[in-house]
Amino acid sequence: MVLNNFDEIKLSKEILKYEEKSKKIFTQTKDTNICWRVWGQGKPIIFLHGGYGSWKHWLKQINFFSKKYSIFIPDMPGFGDSEDLTKPHTPEKIAKNLLDGFLKMKNSDYNQVNIVGFSFGGLIAGHLSFHFVQSGVAPEKVILIGPGGLGAKRGPMEEMVRRTPSMTNEQILEAHKKNLGILMFADKSKIDKLSLYIQLQNTKQHRTKSRPISATDTLAKILSKQKIPLYVIWGEKDSTVGPYLEDRMTILRNINPDVRFHVELNSGHWIMYETPEIFNTIVSNILE
Prior knowledge:
The protein is of the alpha/beta class and 288 residues long. It has a single domain, classed as 3-Layer(aba) Sandwich (Rossmann fold). 40% of the residues lie in helices and 16% in strands. Strands 1-2-4-3-5-6-7-8 form an eight-stranded mixed sheet, sandwiched between helices. Helix 3 crosses helix 4 (120-134).
């Protein structure tokens, strides 16, 4: 990949092709104003992005799932085009505002909702599911991808490259490329200009500090308060997990003995971008 040939205008137009097909909806809630993008028709699926993320984390799922489902992808509060959340930033508050925003869109099939959450979004998915259950509507299925918040050790990884104001644009892109290889991808050859552009835009727009929340056991605690059909997917080479995959499985089995796991070989943390065809098939089979 030649970074001095990095055409942001061309890449933004590529993103726009997806966005133009969506309904862009803002929902004013008690604590914030949330930006949703909605595609397709059918049973609703809520997709929640990861930390330092936005709706663009799910770019390679939009066309596939919108053929059969209504897919709702918010920028969570403090990310992307959504407004900031009033402090303190807690997963409970984030999830409650997401539920309120979703219900304001008056989706008629909301009692058949599925929730899919990635990384920090997996943590929030557990809390959102709990709020659905409390409102009298249990999600049909909850699917977590490389979730944080289980109280397990984080995998050992190389230190991420910090960006500084003194860096040139090319140095910033090189830093993002390096960081994607450390954190998000198992196969560094899969890091393309679009994924780099998504990372560049997402990190510019993130304001909510997700990492301290992900380092807690808040997901484990909230899952123990509800009995839901639970599925968890990891890439075999997810750097956030490292050698501690079995620890995570044990935690989840103790909470929900019926939990189902899928570990995809040779995939990293951002599995739905790195191997989208495989990922889309896995999730589609779960949903059917």
